[in-house]
Amino acid sequence: MLSVVVEHIFLLVLVTLISVLQNAFFATKVEREGKEHHANTSAFERVSCTNRNCMDSYPTFLAVMWCAGLCLNQAPAAFAGLVYLGARQKYFVGYMGQTSQSTPGFLFGKRVLSFLFLMCIVGIFNLLLVRCFGNDFKDTVETIATAASALLLIP
Amino acid sequence: MLSVVVEHIFLLVLVTLISVLQNAFFATKVEREGKEHHANTSAFERVSCTNRNCMDSYPTFLAVMWCAGLCLNQAPAAFAGLVYLGARQKYFVGYMGQTSQSTPGFLFGKRVLSFLFLMCIVGIFNLLLVRCFGNDFKDTVETIATAASALLLIP
Amino acid sequence: MLSVVVEHIFLLVLVTLISVLQNAFFATKVEREGKEHHANTSAFERVSCTNRNCMDSYPTFLAVMWCAGLCLNQAPAAFAGLVYLGARQKYFVGYMGQTSQSTPGFLFGKRVLSFLFLMCIVGIFNLLLVRCFGNDFKDTVETIATAASALLLIP
């Protein structure tokens, strides 16, 4: 019974696992920085702040990705999640490297999150349409979403 | 198959989307405050602290709302979620306005969260009752929950 | 319809509720410390920092526990969740008591999280195996997971 549901979410689970690994990587970096550089507190401050920024937007990201995956289709949602994780990695590593690069970063990965947000809205809209008129545009919409997710790769 | 499940959660998804929009609004406020008032750091500190308080309780809120919606019924859970988002908005805007109003705010929206919490417990209790005795009080309980959620509006 | 799904997750919901209660307990501690000891700011700083560490890893914990419970079986996942909550309680109380004990704590409960992580991977791997070969090792794997979760109690 439940395995039918799991078939529809296992890509989302995979991306969630990768994000957990990334969180662990970030936490390890912060921990090591805190231990090694007791004198150089500014480096620790910076890494810790970056980690905080990343963790602040983490629940939001998880919620939007899962909603998008459940409402419409898991494949484009999982792909967008991967792109987001890539952007986060780039943001974290870039932050660690140089002091000069002080992007506020509360809203990095804006494009990916907006895309997932749109997917949710389209999914719910589609559900209401199906209820009212009985026409199912879901296949069409899913194809468009999968194609549109490829656009996220354009920098 | 999955669309049957989605019918039972689309109100929860909608409230989640609204909360994500609110998060984005908070983050934008913090970002703008950080850029504009480099001299006036106390304002930035305050907004940033408020944002942190809001984000700290965000995963808790999401977890309780989804559990309540899944265990019992989505309509009262989504309504309580909306009331919580309203309280959060009021808290954030009030915090930004005046320095004097320094509510600790770790536990704002206590009443709504307690209500959602109760809904979860009632839902699980109901499930166990159904398993043991075969009586289904779910319809009665759902009606009571929907009626009780209107009580949340009383200030 | 949905009640069939709820049967498979109600243990996870229970553990989530317990974790929410713990969050409320932590927040109350921080609030009281902030009110009572205005002079003694170091104590407040410490409790607040501990609370932050706990809340930082909270979404990660929730995500891993739910994925493990959905992919494989809820009983060992919920048990591992309980063990994690116990470790968190011990960490928080120990942090409050003494200044000397300054464990970084970004990664407390590493063993439990790794176990849940492994459960997810095994669950997804099992799903793929079932798809390709049609053999269902799920019962065997679930038994092993339940037995392995008892190993978590060894300190």
Q: How is the secondary structure organized here?
A:
Three copies of one chain form a homotrimer.
Chain A: H1 2-7, H2 10-36, H3 41-56, H4 58-71, H5 74-97, H6 110-133, H7 138-150
Helix pairs in contact in A: 2-3, 2-5, 3-5, 4-5, 4-6, 5-6, 5-7, 6-7
Subcellular location (chains A, B, C): Endoplasmic reticulum membrane; Nucleus membrane
Subunit structure (chains A, B, C): Homotrimer. Interacts with LTC4S and ALOX5.
GO biological process, one term (chains A, B, C): leukotriene biosynthetic process
Report on this structure.
The structure is a homotrimer. With about 160 residues, chain A is mainly alpha-helical. In chain A, about 80% of the residues lie in helices and about 0% in strands. The first copy, chain A, is built from 7 helices and no strands. Chains in contact: A-B, A-C, B-C. The interface of A and B includes residues 106, 113, 117 and 123 of A.
